[in-house]
Every structure is written in C-alpha cells, then in structure tokens.
Structure prediction request, 118 residues.
Amino acid sequence: QVQLVESGGGLVQPGGSLRLSCAASGFTFNRYWMRWYHQAPGKEREVVAFITESDDGFTNYSDSVFGRFTISRDNARNTVSLQMNNLKPTDTGLYFCNAFAPGGNAYWGQGTQVTVSS
Prediction:
C-alpha cells in the first residue's frame, strides 16, 4: 500500500522557519522524483520544489520560494524534506508531498497545514 505522510506543519511568525518532512512507503522511492506543492486558501495547488531521483539530484524551485526553501531527500530513509526559511504570510496553506515517475505513476500525501501569521 502506497503511503506518503507529511509532518512538520504548524503556526509560525513571519520571518520564521519550518521543516516539513514526508515519509514514503509502498513503492520504490529512489525511482521517483519528489515534489512539494503548496495550496493557498481558495487557490489551485502549485508545485514549489522538486528533486530528481538521487539524494544529490537536480532541484528546482518556483520563483515564489527560490532562495528561501530547500528540498532534500534521503533515499536510505525514504524521506523528502522541505526546509522553509524567512516565511511570509503568502506561504500559508496546505503543503503536499508528491511522488512522480516520469511517464508513470504519481502519488499524493494528505497534506500538512502551514500558517504564517503574527
């Protein structure tokens, strides 16, 4: 059974930091790209970061988070993380972990809530 379980969300003040984690099981983790999506209240889900299959894989970020967020993965532990620094109120929303095999399957976690507010 495929599972992606996010954790690490919460309430933080503007300028603060959070680290999200996603634990994967039920599929061959090191064959999948991993992505983090952000869904702001009332808006579409958007990808903010991805990393290709290896621990030192290629990474890419949306303009909105470039220089503030860092994605990383640990294939030995089947986990992917998102370090979020200098958080802004516009970063508020649900964050979803996504596993993606180009030309193949895609899996989603249930999401974790991040609220940036003073």
